[in-house]
Recover the amino acids of this structure.
């Protein structure tokens, strides 16, 4: 009776075929690492690591060119920082509202409406940022000449930041809402029974209990903000600057890659290799954040499942 | 009868007493707490309102600025720099459709296959299966531009060496959304209760027969939802396509293997948006409207599908 298993070669072939599909994902990662590594090594044969990592002039088009990656890293961080200052309070506020205050019916309308934002192409958000948020929101509200003033600037980090902020709000709201709803009902009810108000239950009981899930959602949102390309290409400008000033035109790592590595770039030039070196920096930055986020999610799952 | 009546009225008394006490306590809550509670609720509502206002503003702006260019010509004419009033999106729309067809052909078998392996076959305590799992979660969050670099160095050039053809773009987008499809399919498979599998195995079916005839049919709505969401993500992606050769001035209908170039809807929108003239801006917004309508329809269909066919076991 039990010997039947071993003779079914078809069954085994299917299992291996399916395993191959799963292994393909590991091969994708390997391929990413290999394709970044080769040209990056080539790049460092031409440009010293000291210049790349410690200088602040990013002028590949000058003669002689200078490759100080810090200024486009600063561009990325500039955009991500202001995006998060907007998205974290809005996203967390929405999450607390959805999980603690909203009635099931309101929740069922608001959550999908917020998630629509995730599905909007980033090109559309970029255009919205540069043609609406910048002239009709940032310029009128910006306090005069503060930090150099916002008037008359066609591109700036802050416009890209607000666009990206809008894009990641649903990520924070949706994932944090899930984390807070995973907190056992008993904790809520215990707190209510002791006479706590709704605000106290939300901030002192539910929020701390769901903290690792909430932090994971924020880390994931930062990773998305750092990796976002089209919004910074369209709204952020193309002038590498070592600054965190939100009303400056900047260049982010992603926008350097997207504007340099278009179809007609010739292989083997320093410019071509610099794209991969910048890509490698970007990949490592987001990889660290993703691993942190995955770890945190797993931890909170272990507690409450 | 009488005893019962007495206990019922005693109960009622006790409940009324408890309620009175609780209400008195609540009224005695420090005034600061009540105010803070109201202010807090107001701030939360404000947060939700800002997020929704952003979404509404985006939709309204696109419609106000783009609707004047909406016509069949917009869908049917090739792009043109000289005559913006006659320019349209035809090669870009065809390019996007072909790209998406390629994505589906690749991502459905591979994604669902990987999900079946991980859910039905893999021993989750083994390190290699754990590695695959963490790897997929990480891939889902790798920036799309990195996939563009992968496409450029591995598919367009390098090992596969396909050149700047549409199929290379398709493969790049497929790799980008593969983790999404795997994760969604796994969730759909996991939702099928074990009793179904055990029932089938107990009747003498093999593992693959069980999967093909019982588990897979039951999870198709969930898988389809995941695939639609992944496809709509691929449809809206621009950045990786810029690196793998989607050019903007394709005035003919693109073919999958043609070496003369191809275009895609978001890339064409991006190009129109970069031009300062009002006519091109209007064209860009009209393109945004077309994309938003298509994407919203796809996403709503996915949500409807999930709700309609979601089985409760």
């Amino acid at each position: 009776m039990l010997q039947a298993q071993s003779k079914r070669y078809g069954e085994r072939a299917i299992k291996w075929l399916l395993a191959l599909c799963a292994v393909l994902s590991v091969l994708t990662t390997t391929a990413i690492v290999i394709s970044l590594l080769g040209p990056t090594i080539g790049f460092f044969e031409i440009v010293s690591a000291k210049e790349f990592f410690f200088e602040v002039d990013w002028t590949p088009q000058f003669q002689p060119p200078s490759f100080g990656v810090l200024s486009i890293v600063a561009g990325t961080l500039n955009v991500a920082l202001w995006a998060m200052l907007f998205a974290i309070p809005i996203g967390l506020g929405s999450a607390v509202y959805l999980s603690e205050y909203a009635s099931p019916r309101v929740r069922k309308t608001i959550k999908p409406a917020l998630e629509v934002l995730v599905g909007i192409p980033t090109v559309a958000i970029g255009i919205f940022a540069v043609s609406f948020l910048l002239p009709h929101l940032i310029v009128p509200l910006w306090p005069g000449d503060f930090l150099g003033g916002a008037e008359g600037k066609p591109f700036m980090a802050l416009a890209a930041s607000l666009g990206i902020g809008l894009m990641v709000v649903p990520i924070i709201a949706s994932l944090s809402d899930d984390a807070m709803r995973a907190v056992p009902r008993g904790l809520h009810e215990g707190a209510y029974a002791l006479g706590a108000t709704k605000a106290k239950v939300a901030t002192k009981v539910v929020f701390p209990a769901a903290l690792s899930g909430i932090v994971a959602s924020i880390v994931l949102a930062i990773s998305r903000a750092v990796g976002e390309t089209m919004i910074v290409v369209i709204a952020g400008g193309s002038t590498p600057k070592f600054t965190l000033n939100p009303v400056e035109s900047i260049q982010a790592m992603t926008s350097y890659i997207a504007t340099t590595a278009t179809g007609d770039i010739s292989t083997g030039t320093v410019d071509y290799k610099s794209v991969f070196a910048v890509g490698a920096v970007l990949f490592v930055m987001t990889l660290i954040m993703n691993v942190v986020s995955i770890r945190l999610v797993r931890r909170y799952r272990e507690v409450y499942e | 009868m009488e005893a019962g009546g007495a206990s019922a009225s005693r109960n009622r008394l006790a409940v009324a007493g408890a309620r009175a006490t609780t209400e008195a306590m609540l009224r005695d809550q420090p005034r600061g707490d009540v105010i803070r509670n109201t202010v807090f609720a107001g701030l939360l509502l404000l947060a939700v309102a800002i997020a929704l206002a952003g979404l509404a503003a985006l939709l309204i702006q696109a419609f106000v600025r783009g609707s004047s260019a909406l016509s069949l010509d917009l869908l049917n004419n090739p792009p043109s720099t000289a005559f913006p009033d006659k320019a349209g999106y035809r090669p870009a729309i065809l390019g996007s459709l072909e790209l998406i067809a390629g994505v589906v052909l690749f991502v459905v078998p591979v994604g669902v296959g990987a999900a079946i392996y991980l859910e039905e076959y893999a021993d989750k305590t083994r390190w290699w299966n754990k590695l695959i799992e963490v790897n997929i979660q990480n891939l889902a969050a790798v920036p799309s531009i990195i996939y563009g670099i992968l496409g450029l160095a591995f598919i367009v050039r390098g090992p596969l060496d396909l050149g700047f053809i549409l199929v290379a773009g398709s493969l790049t987008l497929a790799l980008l959304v593969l983790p999404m499809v795997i994760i969604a399919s796994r969730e759909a498979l996991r939702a099928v209760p074990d009793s179904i599998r055990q029932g089938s195995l107990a009747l003498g079916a093999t593992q693959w027969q069980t999967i093909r005839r019982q588990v897979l049919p039951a999870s198709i709505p969930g898988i389809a939802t995941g695939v639609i969401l992944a496809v709509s993500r691929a449809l809206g992606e621009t950045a990786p396509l810029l690196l793998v050769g989607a050019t903007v001035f394709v005035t003919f209908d693109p073919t999958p293997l043609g070496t003369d170039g191809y275009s895609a809807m978001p890339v064409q929108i991006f190009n129109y948006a970069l031009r300062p003239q009002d006519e091109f801006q209007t064209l860009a917004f009209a393109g945004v409207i077309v994309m938003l309508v298509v994407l919203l329809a796809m996403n709503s269909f996915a949500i409807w599908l999930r709700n309609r066919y979601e089985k409760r076991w």
In short: The two ends of chain B are 44 Å apart (CA to CA).
